[in-house]
């Protein structure tokens, strides 16, 4: 085996480093300019971090050389003096210990560089013997390079010139929602105490201007301003204040959701108030009941009721269709903040909380229909499948659980499951592959849908709760591992064939589920990604960023 390394092999290691660090644009450009994508290298045997290990080994070797030279010089001086002192002996011993530690560090690095070099050398020998220096080998990806632990092929890196960036918010954008009936209308909610309505042009993103948004203020007189320049806000109203007290009050917008007919937008805020706006940005209702921040809200399928959950431990049902929008019922099941809610039908819903519990309740009933227990930490997210048969939950205990409120062969009127020892009888799947908190769970849009979970371990996992085999019940169908930070958000495309994910690593990834989880699009923004969403036609994707912007780009399969 030759002890040399070629420039093509160095280029490949640099290319791998850029990909592993998430610099997808730089990797794409470098790969084409250096022609590493046509080199025919098979990197399937090279582990992540190879370039850094080579560099660290070089630094260690240079340090060892310097120490050996220094030690030899000191030894010569000692021989000339024919004497040594105790302190010199101590220094020599310390130097030897340092040399030993340096050698040990070089020998026991996480990556075995000799193995990496063997892979590179074997590629070189294969290329020379076949005489096909730039061709693609059998089993290679579409880019000609098989990357260990990465999806097949090189995904298309969306350029900034292909992205429409929406400016206006002055703090993090936490939530976004496309109008279900009008594919061009997008709502966003921010930590600046406003929501905004954007009309996104139908043309290619990045090439057409966007009109100024409608601003829905969650403070002051709460009258929306269609033109902020024509109606400037008073200087003192820049910082929202609590009503009547004068103390500062956080009014972060925590959720935005459109009614099924697309005519009304509901928003929730840290001020404990939910609001209903018209699609023209006019405030129609203020739903004031909760004594703590409202964390989530959902419309039922008919748009007649609105559901809110709060830090005050309660869940409220509102008559959203009434002129007064009064509270129909307030549920007090939880013993800690109620974190998420989702409707099963027009009058039945599920809620989850920091008390580790999941409740299924029906409007008009004082007690919950079902109590789902088994999580060992806060339950961050709940969602019903499209048929309303299965409920998924994701928790800080690193698990995803799937519940079936009606057991096979029983009626829907059986009593609530008792809370006690043993497993909850309504638990049908318990997925434990995630290694950190599960922040979001989402079902695909079709019957017999797959389930996606987003975790702080940097992965998205796809599950099939309907699988009958024992193995499939506990193992993910796909593990989508490309993000380098916590994954906050996932969303299925309207057709269910694609999934988009967003992470604190500033990256948005689009995956093809019909191709086994192949990464097909990537975009790196200027801030962490809190939420992603598809428009109703599946032609555009929006991402809410921590730098106060919303990015929109086109998607064509």
From TrEMBL:
GO molecular function: transcription corepressor activity
Keyword Repeat: yes
Source taxon at top rank: Eukaryota
Secretion signal, residue range per the UniProt entry: none
Keyword field contains ATP-binding: no
GO cellular component: histone deacetylase complex
Annotated keywords: Nucleus, Repeat, Transcription, Transcription regulation, WD repeat
InterPro entries the UniProt entry points to: Ebi-like (IPR045183), LisH (IPR006594), Quino_amine_DH_bsu (IPR011044), WD40/YVTN_repeat-like_dom_sf (IPR015943), WD40_PAC1 (IPR020472), WD40_repeat_dom_sf (IPR036322), WD40_rpt (IPR001680)
WD repeats, residue ranges: 166-208, 253-278, 287-318, 372-404, 431-473, 480-521
Gene Ontology BP, a term: regulation of transcription by RNA polymerase II
Compartments, as annotated in UniProt: Nucleus
Protein name: Uncharacterized protein
């Amino acid at each position: 085996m030759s002890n040399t390394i070629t420039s093509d092999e160095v280029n490949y290691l640099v290319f791998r480093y850029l990909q592993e660090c998430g610099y997808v644009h730089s990797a794409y450009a470098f790969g084409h300019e250096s022609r590493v994508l046509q080199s025919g290298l098979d990197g399937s045997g090279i582990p992540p971090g190879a370039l850094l290990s080579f560099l660290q080994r070089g630094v260690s070797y240079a340090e060892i050389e310097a120490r050996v030279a220094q030690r030899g010089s000191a030894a010569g001086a000692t021989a000339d003096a024919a004497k040594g002192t105790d302190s010199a002996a101590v220094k020599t011993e310390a130097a030897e210990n340092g040399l030993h530690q340096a050698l040990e560090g070089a020998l026991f690095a996480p990556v075995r560089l000799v193995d990496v070099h063997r892979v590179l050398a074997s590629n070189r020998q294969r290329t020379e013997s076949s005489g096909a220096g730039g061709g693609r080998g059998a089993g290679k990806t579409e880019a000609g390079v098989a990357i260990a632990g990465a999806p097949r092929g090189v995904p298309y890196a969306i350029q900034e010139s292909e992205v429409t960036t929406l400016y206006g918010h002055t703090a993090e954008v936490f939530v976004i929602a496309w109008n279900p009936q009008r594919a061009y209308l997008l709502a966003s909610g921010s930590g600046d105490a406003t929501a905004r309505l954007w009309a996104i042009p139908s043309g290619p993103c990045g090439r057409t201007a966007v009109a100024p948004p409608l601003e829905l203020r969650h403070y002051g007189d709460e009258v929306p301003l269609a033109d902020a320049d024509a109606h400037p806000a008073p200087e003192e109203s820049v910082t929202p204040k609590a009503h009547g007290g004068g103390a500062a009050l956080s009014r972060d917008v925590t959720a935005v959701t459109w009614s099924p007919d697309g005519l009304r937008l509901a928003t929730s805020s840290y001020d404990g108030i939910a609001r209903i706006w018209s699609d023209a940005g006019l405030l129609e209702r203020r739903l004031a009941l909760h004594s703590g921040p409202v964390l989530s809200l959902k419309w039922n399928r008919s748009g007649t009721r609105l559901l809110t959950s709060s830090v005050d431990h309660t869940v409220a049902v509102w008559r959203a269709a009434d002129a007064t929008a009064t509270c129909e019922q307030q549920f007090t099941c939880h013993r800690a903040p109620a974190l998420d809610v989702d409707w099963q039908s027009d009058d039945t819903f599920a809620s989850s909380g920091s008390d580790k519990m999941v409740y299924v309740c029906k409007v008009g009933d004082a007690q919950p229909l079902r109590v789902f227990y088994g999580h060992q930490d806060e339950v961050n997210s709940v969602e019903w499948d499209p048929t309303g048969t299965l409920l998924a939950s994701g928790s800080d205990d690193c698990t995803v659980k799937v519940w079936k409120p009606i057991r096979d062969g029983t009626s829907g009127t059986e009593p609530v499951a008792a809370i006690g020892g043993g497993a909850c009888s309504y638990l049908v799947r318990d997925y434990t592959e995630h290694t950190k908190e599960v922040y979001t769970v989402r079902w695909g849009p079709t019957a017999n849908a797959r389930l996606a979970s987003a975790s702080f371990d940097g992965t998205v996992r796809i599950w099939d709760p309907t699988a009958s085999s024992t193995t499939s019940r506990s193992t993910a169908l796909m593990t989508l591992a490309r993000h380098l930070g916590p994954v906050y958000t996932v969303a299925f495309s309207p057709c269910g064939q694609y999934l988009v994910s967003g992470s604190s690593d500033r990256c948005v990834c689009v995956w093809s589920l019909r191709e086994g989880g192949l990464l097909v699009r990537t975009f790196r923004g200027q801030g962490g990604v809190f939420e992603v969403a598809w428009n109703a036609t599946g032609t555009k994707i929006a991402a809410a960023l921590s730098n106060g912007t919303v990015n929109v780009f086109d998607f064509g399969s």
